């Protein structure tokens, strides 16, 4: 009978919806933050040589195959607090420079906040800068790598779902220029 077939079809459809996919699945949550920071990239030449500022935006996804006992990947507020504190302390309303940029000394004298990329451990290096030792200039790509490291450290300090990891971190420098950095298998 037509009515019975329709009912059977609907039941099968509902069952398929609640059955686990055969493809691997995962949970993903994302937090975002913005910061106002200047940089310059003299090695690229042209207008990038001039000190200029951007309203940067970062999006940090965290992926986990299963949820924690409190049915979260990680608590949003705690994750945001950790990442925001680092960004607001070291980057917001500051300037990102390459370690050999002669501009740095003038900014220090003027009591400006400076974060140097490419700084290795020496007396003038602050611990936070060691996260960017291998990143010689503050390109958007380098900022994405740095902020993924910051996010990994923030996540590691929090209770979270088993095997939770930071996915591809997204950084926006301008409305037209963005970069992502993270595992190739992450969306
Ligand atoms: N791969 C990268 N290329 C460039 C970077 C970078 O970080 N990674 N950075 C710059 C400059 O910092 C600059 O701020 C952006 O340059 P550009 O897009 O050329 O300049 P505009 O925003 O003014 O672009 P319009 O589209 O003309 O408005 C350069 N390259």
Automatic annotation (TrEMBL):
Keyword Zinc in annotation: yes
Protein name according to UniProt = 6-carboxy-5,6,7,8-tetrahydropterin synthase
Q: Which cofactor is essential here?
A: Zn(2+)
Q: Which reaction does it catalyse?
A: 7,8-dihydroneopterin 3'-triphosphate + H2O = 6-carboxy-5,6,7,8-tetrahydropterin + triphosphate + acetaldehyde + 2 H(+)
| Pathway stated in the Swiss-Prot or TrEMBL entry | Purine metabolism; 7-cyano-7-deazaguanine biosynthesis
User: Which superkingdom?
Assistant: Bacteria
For this UniProt record, give its keywords in alphabetical order, as a comma-separated list: Lyase, Metal-binding, Zinc
User: InterPro entries, from UniProt?
Assistant: 6-PTP_synth/QueD, 6-PTP_synth/QueD_sf
Give the EC number(s) listed in the UniProt record. Answer: 4.1.2.50
Q: Which organism is it from?
A: Haloechinothrix salitolerans
Q: Does the keyword Metal-binding apply?
A: yes
Q: Which family does it belong to?
A: Belongs to the PTPS family. QueD subfamily.
Give any Pfam family that matches: PTPS
């Amino acid at each position: 009978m037509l009515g019975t077939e329709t009912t059977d079809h609907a039941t099968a459809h509902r069952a398929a919806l609640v059955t686990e996919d055969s493809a691997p699945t995962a949970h993903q949550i994302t937090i975002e933050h913005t910061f106002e920071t200047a940089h310059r990239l003299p090695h690229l030449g042209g207008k990038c040589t001039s000190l200029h500022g951007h309203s940067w935006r970062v999006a940090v996804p965290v992926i986990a195959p299963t949820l924690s006992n409190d049915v979260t990947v990680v608590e949003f507020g705690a994750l945001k607090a950790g990442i925001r504190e680092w960004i607001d302390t070291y980057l917001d309303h500051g300037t990102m420079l390459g370690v050999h940029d002669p501009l740095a000394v003038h900014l220090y004298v003027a009591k400006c906040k400076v974060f140097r990329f490419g700084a290795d451990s020496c007396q003038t290096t602050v611990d936070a800068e060691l996260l960017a030792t291998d990143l010689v200039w503050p390109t958007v790509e380098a900022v994405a790598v740095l902020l993924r490291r910051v996010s990994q450290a923030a996540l590691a300090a929090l209770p979270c779902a088993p095997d939770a990891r930071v996915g591809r971190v997204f950084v926006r420098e301008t409305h037209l220029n963005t970069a992502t950095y993270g595992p190739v298998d992450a969306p």
